[in-house]
Amino acid sequence: MNEIELLNWARGPGLTYATIFMVFGLTLRVIEILSLGRPKELAEVRDSGVRDGWRMVIMRSLPERRNWKRITAAYLFHVGLLIVVFFFIPHTQFFRDVFGVFWNGWPNYIIDFVTVVSIAAMLYTLAQRLFDPARRILTTIPDYLAWLVTFLPFVTGYMAFHRLGVDYTLMLALHILSVELLMIALPISKLTHAVTFAMSRWYLGSNNGRRGIHV
Amino acid sequence: MTTSFEQGINTLKRVIDAPIASYFSSCTRCGLCAQACVFYTETGDAKYTPIRRVEPMRRIWEQEYTAVGKLKKLIGLSKTVTEQELEDTVELAFESCTTCGRCSMVCPVGNDIVYMIRRMREGLTAAGLGPKELRAAAVRTLETGSVMGFPMKTLEAQVRAAEEETGIKINIDEPNVDYLLLLSSAEVMQFNEIIAALAQIFQEAKVTWTLSSTAHEAGNPGMHLGSSEIEAAMINKIVEAAEELNIKNVISPECGHAYMAIRWEGPNVIGRPYPFKVYHIIEVLDKLREEGRMNTECCDAERITFHDPCQAARRGGVNEPQRNLLNMVSSNFIEMEDRKACNWCCGGGGGVNSIEKSEPLMDKVFHRKRAQIEMLDVTTVVTMCATCRNALEEGAEKNGMDIRVMGLTEVLANRLLKEKKS
Predict the structure, then answer these.
(1) Is the full-model pTM beyond 0.90?
(2) Which of B35, B68, B109 sits opposite A193 (nearest CB)?
(3) Fewer CB within 10 Å, N or C, chain B?
């Protein structure tokens, strides 16, 4: 298999398999959660909690006022990830081809800058994991692997864009394959939080809301 | 109650619900919860990182309720929870956690760790690992009707003393009145001025109320222990008393965990809604203030601050009434920097203050509270929870802090009295 064939496989069957696995897997994870059910609240509530549930889903995405210094790296990485995935022009073209929806991408120099910041932020979070005792004690090998499969698409994408390292076609194939690896990891690792974060926040927010706690 | 390791594991399997599954699914092990936990910040010991306290439960969830976890278990990547691990978790779920819930204020994915700790304790107790002090308190409460184990006649004596002091008749087992008042053991034994204080406030406001001879204890060690059975038995006593006396409103006293147990957990542990409403005493007093039924003298210029008890404020939703009331009687009420839902724990709640082994740790974590108070240069710290009050008093004494600690009801009664005297 040469580079062209590898790229074609990554773009074609590889992407299909990874997508099926990701969608099926994440759906299963959500069903696994919901099927456990939530006990009916028998105490007289102050509020339905629906508003506070949604509020929590949204508000916890904003930087935390109190601890902003501590979450900067992780926060930057998440923002960077969303920008790069959805606003790099070739990515917007991909989404147009696949889903038929199109929005304007951002100039390459911005994406390039965001990528560098995101890579730096990810390295910083890795350092935190290795050196901060509270994080280190929690982290398991699958967590480091989850970091790695999130890191690889950034690095391969950056290298492909700047024509670094191996031949461009091969690098692009590697980039797409690394994204597929990430898609496969999503439902089987802590990366599931990309979907379930909304559920956990909702449960906390709505529980709070029922008790009249509006934070 | 028979206990065994298997029962512990089965209980843990049973208590896992959709919220818990979503919390474990979302946790990224980011460790931010540590920064919010007074036991971590004051000791620097990573073992106190909040989410670690429920690790056995996480593994049970993964192995029982996820396809990935089942596969991991099958190929030996995920080990089943051992008896030793449950034993090791006692320290983390009971001895060094006040269930204050500050961790859930910073968790990026919104994990309610105390929701899980509460159920982790349920599993540990079912495995026979509940701390002996909490078990003893639970048994004592069931047998005597009071957490501290005093008989009804002790309360009767306090009631008579309050009657003599105020000249107001205090009802016991009076049917068809507005409110049934519950008291915590600490209020009967240590902070008994509350009985006279309330008698006066209620007399002024023309509120009718009673105590119950069968259900006067608001404290509920069953909740701390993680025994829904014992918690429900205590709650049922209150429900029966209120039903028998035909009372539509029950007052939970200045006690954070009592409020959590009777107001929020109660109907869920007994499995049916109440035929009455439950209020924290401070909610009732604030209602009287709003209706203009409490005439107090304004305003004391002493510098005072307020300590929000975690179970009443952050987790119970009583955040504004205490402020309305303090501002009514004080012209110099100063807020702590972290307050309401973000307040730092006193270090004594969740049963920690009754576990002997935890005392040195409690002393250590009090330093956070001390720093918070000393920053404000106040003379008085007011609170609305007997456990917080004890922790604050002890902490102030051990650290040579020149502050007075008071219950909010007492503060209000003092201002009420002055007006009557003048």
Answers:
(1) yes
(2) B109
(3) C
